[in-house]
Specification:
It comes from Kushneria aurantia. The protein is mainly alpha-helical and 88 residues long. It is built from three helices and two strands.
Length: 88
């Protein structure tokens, strides 16, 4: 099982999750931030939405590039099973 790699053992994955989860929680924003509006939307809400999008992209990156199991070799990895001639 030399080819196995789990993201839970990688420090940069945990740092990324921690930073993004902190950005998603609006409880630490200053009190005056609730009155700042951009196109009628509170600034804190835009920050939370952007952080949620970044979290989704980060999770996709972790799953696609940092998580390697033995099934990747058996079943073709992220590309799925190899296409046979004539099949689509």
């Amino acid at each position: 099982m030399a080819g196995m790699s789990e993201p839970v053992r990688k420090r940069r994955v945990w740092i990324g999750f921690t930073l993004l989860f902190v950005l998603i929680n609006p409880w630490y924003f200053p009190a005056g931030m609730a009155t700042s509006l951009i196109f009628g939307i509170p600034l804190w809400a835009l920050i939370v939405l952007a952080a949620s999008l970044m979290l989704s992209v980060f999770i996709s990156w972790v799953v696609m590039t940092q998580w390697h199991t033995d099934s990747d070799e058996r079943y073709g990895g992220a590309n799925g099973p190899h296409d046979r001639e004539g099949e689509r």
